[in-house]
Design brief:
This protein has 422 residues and is of the alpha/beta class. The protein has 3 domains: 153 residues, Glutamyl-tRNA reductase, N-terminal domain (Beta Polymerase, domain 2, 2-Layer Sandwich), CATH 3.30.460; 144 residues, Rossmann fold (3-Layer(aba) Sandwich); 75 residues, no CATH class. Helices cover 55% and strands 14% of the residues. Strands 7-6-5-8-9-10 form a 6-stranded parallel beta sheet. It has a 4-stranded antiparallel beta sheet with strand order 2-3-1-4. It is elongated. The chain starts with a strand and ends in a 9-residue tail after the last helix.
Length: 422
């Protein structure tokens, strides 16, 4: 049996294709059970996220791709022609390496992002629940978790934020320490502000105020985080309460001027404020940075931090690739040992089958009146002949074909030494 990673991701397929191939929690167990009914597939797990759909399979032949393509297209009611240009397959060592790279965040849209590992663990648990994991796949997934942990521990792949939104939250954390007790005012209701809100919410911030020109949009976004929604015109009534202000609107004129911030600082008795302006054109007048007790960062400031962090992650990724190669070697060593163990078990089973047949015949001989000596001679001679028949025939064939390497291997395996005493 060999391992195969088969599927597509954000690099090989547009979202219009990826969304059609997504498996939902409701249908993935049924899909797994269908998948393992394919004759070439001995075990399977399905990883399905917004950025990828991948089948991780134990396969019994070197060419299961057509069968998997047929199944995938049929399951999602798509044509093979629609899927084929976007699919990739990684076989044996390459398949193992691919899963490790995915688990470590090296194959993600955001280099080093940690969420994918949780998604892989979820895919593993679902396949385990469906009963579609064999021993090799179980070992493979556990070793991918180990590889990801080692990469996180031994490199800086995940230590630096590489999105502007998360960088803003990280800077706030550096300024205020614990964010639990801080009040955050977010101006705007677009994707950037939603991402910032999510990061602050995940950091334990409970006091979030969302201001927007459309109060409906503000309310809709605030509903996701149990926060307060206000109209843009109400900002000055809430500004003094805000320890942290993040703004990202499409306004052509500044939303916050030096005067309004100065007034808020006085009301706060000069308690520091952290302001982040992610808008272009700016939402916050540049003169605000002249004020004491105010930390103002613009999109350019944060983008430089992000650029430096991306470079840091890329350097860490090179270290991660080396760790992954070592982990792949370890898994392949285990796989070879496991395959050899299986061969030994099968060899012993064959010998035991021969023994059972000979003993059965010997028992019948004894029951039919043969003497004990005759029965023992029969057992000894028959067992000897049956056990050495195949090795003897193979050695003869190797000699005929001048396969000296096989003859030498046979001498070592069978421990053939003319001077050795019984």
């Amino acid at each position: 049996m060999e391992l195969l990673a088969f599927g597509l991701n954000h690099k090989s397929a547009p979202v219009s294709i990826r969304e059609q191939l997504a498996f939902t929690p409701d249908n993935v167990i049924h899909a797994l059970q269908e998948l393992t009914e394919i004759p070439q597939v001995s075990g399977a797990a399905i990883l399905s996220t917004c950025n990828r759909t991948e089948l991780y399979c134990g396969v019994k032949s070197e060419n299961p791709h057509q069968a998997l393509l047929d199944w995938l297209a049929g399951y999602h009611q798509l044509t093979k022609e629609q899927l084929k240009p976007h699919l990739y397959s990684h076989y044996a060592r390459n398949g193992i390496r691919h899963l490790y790279r995915v688990a470590c965040g090296l194959d993600s849209m955001v280099l080093g992002e940690p969420q994918i590992l949780g998604q892989i663990k979820s895919a593993y648990n679902t396949a385990k629940q469906a009963g579609t994991l064999d021993k090799t796949l179980i070992r493979l997934f556990h070793s991918s978790f180990t590889a990801a942990k080692k990469v996180r521990t031994d490199t800086a792949i995940g230590s630096s934020p590489v999105s502007v939104a998360f960088t803003a939250v990280r800077l706030a954390h550096q300024i205020f320490g614990n964010l639990d007790s801080q009040t955050v005012l977010l101006i705007g209701a677009g994707e950037t502000i939603e991402l910032v809100a999510r990061h602050f919410h995940n950091q334990g911030v409970e006091n979030i105020i969302i201001a927007n020109r459309s109060i409906e949009k503000a309310q809709r976004l605030a509903g996701h985080f149990s926060s307060q929604a206000i109209h843009l015109t109400e900002i000055n009534h809430f500004l003094a309460k805000a320890d942290i202000v993040v703004s990202s609107t499409a306004s052509q004129l500044p939303i916050l001027g030096k005067g309004s911030i100065e007034s808020a600082i006085r009301k706060r008795k000069h308690k520091p404020m952290f302001l982040v302006d992610l808008a272009v054109p700016r939402d916050i007048e540049s003169e605000v940075q002249q004020l004491s007790d105010v930390f103002l960062y613009t999109i350019d400031d944060l983008q430089q931090v992000v650029t430096d962090n991306i470079k840091s992650r890329q350097e860490a990724a090179l270290q991660a690739e080396e760790i992954i190669e070592t982990q792949v070697d370890h898994f392949l060593d285990w796989l070879k040992t496991e395959q050899h163990t299986t061969m030994i078990i099968n060899y012993r089973r064959q010998a035991e089958d021969i023994r059972d047949v000979v003993l059965e015949k010997a028992t019948r001989l004894h029951q039919n009146g043969a003497s004990t000596e005759e029965v023992l001679n029969y057992i000894a001679n028959t067992l000897t002949n049956k056990l050495i028949h195949t090795p003897t025939a193979q050695i003869r064939e190797a000699a005929t074909n001048q396969r000296i390497d096989l003859i030498i291997a046979a001498q070592q395996l069978l421990d053939i030494n003319p001077d050795k005493k019984p």
